[in-house]
Amino acid sequence: MIAFLKSKAGLAVLAGFLVLFIGGGARFAIGLTLRPMVEELHWGRGEVGGTVALFQIVTAFAMFFAGRAADRMSLRLILIGGLAVCGVSIGLMGFVTRPWQAFLLYGVVFGLANGTASVIPVSVMVTRAMPARAGFANGVAMAGMSLGQLVIVAALAAVLVTTDWRQVFFWLGAVHVLFLAALAPMIPGAAAHGRAEAAMAPRTGMTLAGAMRTRQFWLLVAVYAICGFDDFFVATHVVAFAQDRGVDAFLAGNLLAIMGLVGLLGVVIAGWWGDRAGPVAATAASFAARVACFGLVALDQSPLSVTIFALVFGVTFLMTAPLTVLFVRESFGAANLGAIAGLITMIHHICGGIGAWIGAAVFDASGKYDSAFLLMFVVSALALALTLMLRKHPPASVSTS
Question: Can you give the C-alpha Rg of the chain in angstroms?
Fold first, then answer.
């Protein structure tokens, strides 16, 4: 194990894990602080939901361009630069007093930076490092998001209980700065990028335009759009929802951390399963579990059911993330892995922003989340049906036109 971590492949996987560890904790902090923010600042939940929606949309576009850049540029520049801007912008969130400030700092600046230092450049880096076990390697790297959600959100929940929500953002900014120095030498630079290109050559596959002319691409877009719609509705509102339903404030705050813990298991299993059986089966299992847990909470919203919901949904929360590169490489080849995976993930995150906003709008209009949970149940069932329509082993085209 130590020898692996000292190898270039091991360092790349570890670097990806750490980048996503800090990003996985930081991006969910606003869900933890939603209720105290709106109470102190006298905002509506829709204003925080709108901030998250803007963040999702900006992050989505940043992921797409970061994916295109990852096919051609230094991964060290992309990831370290993104993390540096993340630290500054999330730290400044502790000073906000007006909605427009949150829109700018969290929605735009943090969104751009978080999307740059994100899962798509990390996926490209890890897939180059371990092409034969790309699913498992990506699962391990993306477990960083779950562990970050567990460790960082749990620590911030304790901060929130002892001080106030502003300290949550100050501490997040400091943690980003601490990670930068350690990560810089671990991430491959331009020279290593060139050697990786040579090692993988010849890389064949469709262009982005060619992939967009296939049925498989649009099925993937629809599946990942619904996945994002579910994900960020839950991540943004589960803490406030649990508190509304009588769950203790500290336990409610730690639901995101608990979801991170069980998500750690889900993402690694998904990568391992994807390497052996292809990505379709694991994706279908994820949506089947979501149908069950959304159905449960639509029928019963007792504290016990809310906790079960968080545990079951948490297992599925990141399951499709390591499968994205497997779907893309299997369906369209590796020549434009970053660009195609980036576009699919961009749509995933845009729909995530819509899900976060719809949850807030439903609550502001009715004072409860019932209609939103019913909607999530229906679209998750649709995603399960669409997943089963995907070809399990489509031949990857070698066209470059």
Answer: 20
Chosen CATH of 9-389 out of 1.10.10.10, 1.20.1250.20, 2.30.42.10, 3.40.50.300: 1.20.1250.20
Residue 178, judged by CB atoms within 10 A of its CB (0-12, 13-18, 19+), counts as exposed
Consecutive 10-residue averages of pLDDT for the chain (401 residues): 64 90 82 83 81 84 90 88 94 92 94 92 89 87 81 82 88 89 78 45 74 95 96 87 82 76 87 91 96 93 89 90 90 88 89 87 89 95 96 52 39
Q: C-alpha 364: how far from its chain's center? A: 26
Q: Three-class SS of residue 395?
A: coil
Going from N- to C-terminal start, the domains of the chain cover 9-389
Residue with tokens 């909470």: 297
User: Which DSSP letter does residue 196 get?
Assistant: H
> Position 202: which residue type?
P
> What predicted TM-score, i.e. pTM, was given to this entire model?
0.76
